[in-house]
């Protein structure tokens, strides 16, 4: 583990390193939780996929029949023959070979023009807005974190796959746990980060919240340490409920590897309602066409594989996936055959309980805000529906004053 100072490890915003915010657990610990208190039958599960960098929505859901699109991107635009047709106006990026079948099956919703008032072109500020659901002012809590605060102290209600807890999963009193996937054991983690649970007068309020939530979840990790130390990790175990299938075809698809872990957690009955995974690399200022196609092919492979694993599973049939990025890109291509930071973009929602099709009005490609798309859907309305219909929460406690859009059954 890289040596970091106390402040770096207890930062109250952005990414929390090494799972400090909610504690780190191993797959064996989670499997024990699944045996002792499995997720209730019919309970919904939300999987949040964050695409870092600002995914270009116009190259994801392509308005191939719009002349304004081709005029703005004469060399970057996809032709009608290159995309998978969603209807007679829009098509999916040619890298998305599997998700077009989900569209045809009616289990794929595209929410168009999603953004927020007074958009910010900064990666950091825009992602902070999306993850805190607070466009008007800075907030130290994420939208999932506020749900955690309101629903008790169970440390496995939300899990982040990897080595970080994003801002969205950090609350004032509770935060998501990290599912260790690379051989981290409970005793090793406790030795490395245990001293950080000790109060310090120099800690900020946010740092104190992270520290206290880690201390609470550390109790669970210690209790079940005998089950996890020396056992298999989530990335290697192939025991009961352990594998979604052959992984030799994944190559370097990091998102697929994360979603494989999520699939295993869901199929064993882990009492987790929200999972967070991510993929970076979407800041396509140059040579976008090939770069984004490869990235979206990875997204497509990962999601298709995951949804296939969920399709025949009792719990999987109540799982919903949301895919978002911090902003879209500008309408006009730049001189490097890429696109610069923009505003609104599509949010993708997938699963058996989804009302497939388009939702929300499509932003005009000619009536722009200084070259940017004008948002037609507030992202907090997306959260409102997911919280109420999938997570089973009171959405008004997290995103007050919002409403459902109707993309879920």
Characterise this structure.
The structure is a single chain. The chain is α/β, with parallel strands linked by helices. The protein has one domain (6-397): Alkaline Phosphatase, subunit A, CATH 3.40.720. 31% of the residues lie in helices and 14% in strands. The protein is built from twelve helices and 15 strands. The protein has helices spanning 6-9, 27-36, 67-72, 99-104, 123-132, 143-150, 186-193, 205-223, 225-228, 254-267, 288-311, 379-391, and strands at 16-17, 24-25, 45-51, 61-62, 84-85, 91-92, 108-115, 158-161, 164-165, 177-179, 274-279, 319-325, 345-350, 357-359, 377-378. The strands form three sheets. Strands 2, 3, 7, 8, 10, 11, 12, 13, 14 and 15 form a ten-stranded mixed beta sheet that branches. Helix 10 (254-267) packs parallel to helix 11. It is globular, with a radius of gyration of 21 Å. The termini are far apart. The model is unreliable at 1-21 and 219-245 (pLDDT under 50). Residues 228-237 have a biased composition (Low complexity). This is DUF1501 domain-containing protein. It holds the Pfam family DUF1501. Residues 227-249 are annotated as: Disordered.
Mean pLDDT: 85
Radius of gyration: 21 Å
Structural class by helix and strand composition: alpha/beta
Percent helix range? 25-40%
First-last Cα distance = 44 Å
Q: Report the biggest beta sheet as strand number plus sense, adding barrel if it closes.
A: 10 strands, mixed
Low-confidence stretches: 1-21, 219-245
Tally of discrete structural domains: 1
What is the tally of helical segments? 12
What is the CATH fold-level name? Answer: Alkaline Phosphatase, subunit A
Q: H/E element string? A: HEEHEEHEEHEHHEEEHHHHEHEEEEH
Pfam families: DUF1501
InterPro entries: Alkaline_phosphatase_core_sf, DUF1501, TAT_signal
Protein name: DUF1501 domain-containing protein
């Amino acid at each position: 583990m890289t040596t970091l100072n106390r402040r770096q490890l207890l930062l109250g915003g952005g990414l929390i390193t090494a799972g400090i915010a909610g504690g780190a657990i191993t797959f064996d610990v989670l499997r024990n939780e699944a045996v002792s208190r499995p997720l209730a039958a019919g309970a919904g599960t939300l999987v949040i996929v964050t695409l870092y960098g600002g995914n270009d929505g116009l190259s994801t859901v392509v308005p191939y029949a719009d002349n304004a699109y081709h005029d703005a991107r004469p060399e970057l635009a996809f032709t009608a023959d290159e995309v998978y047709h969603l209807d007679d106006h829009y098509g999916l990026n040619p890298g998305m070979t599997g998700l077009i079948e989900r569209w045809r099956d009616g289990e794929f919703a595209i929410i168009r023009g999603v953004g927020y008032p007074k958009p910010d072109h900064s990666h950091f500020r825009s992602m902070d807005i999306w993850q805190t659901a607070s466009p008007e002012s800075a907030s130290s809590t994420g939208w999932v974190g506020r749900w955690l605060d309101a629903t008790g102290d169970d440390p496995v209600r939300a899990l982040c796959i990897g080595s970080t807890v994003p801002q969205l999963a950090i609350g004032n009193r509770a935060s998501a746990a990290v599912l260790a996937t690379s051989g981290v054991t409970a005793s090793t983690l406790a030795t490395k980060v245990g001293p950080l649970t000790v109060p310090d007068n120099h800690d900020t309020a946010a740092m104190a919240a992270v520290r206290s939530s880690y201390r609470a979840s550390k109790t669970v990790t210690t209790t079940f340490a005998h089950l996890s130390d020396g056992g298999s990790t989530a990335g290697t175990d192939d025991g009961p409920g352990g594998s979604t299938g052959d992984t030799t075809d994944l190559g370097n698809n990091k998102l697929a590897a994360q979603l494989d872990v999520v699939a295993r957690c869901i199929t064993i009955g882990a009492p987790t309602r929200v999972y967070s995974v991510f993929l970076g690399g979407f800041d396509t200022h140059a040579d976008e066409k090939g770069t984004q196609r490869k990235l979206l092919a990875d997204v497509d492979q990962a999601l298709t594989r995951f949804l296939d694993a969920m399709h025949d599973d009792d719990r999987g049939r109540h799982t919903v996936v949301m895919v978002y990025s911090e902003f879209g890109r500008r309408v006009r291509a730049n001189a490097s055959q890429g696109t610069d930071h923009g505003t609104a973009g599509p949010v993708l929602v997938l699963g058996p309980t989804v009302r497939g099709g388009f939702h929300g009005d499509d932003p005009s490609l000619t009536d722009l805000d200084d070259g940017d798309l004008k948002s037609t859907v507030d992202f907090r309305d997306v959260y409102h529906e997911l919280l109420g219909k999938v997570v089973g929460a009171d959405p008004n406690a997290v995103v007050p004053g919002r409403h459902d859009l109707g993309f879920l059954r």
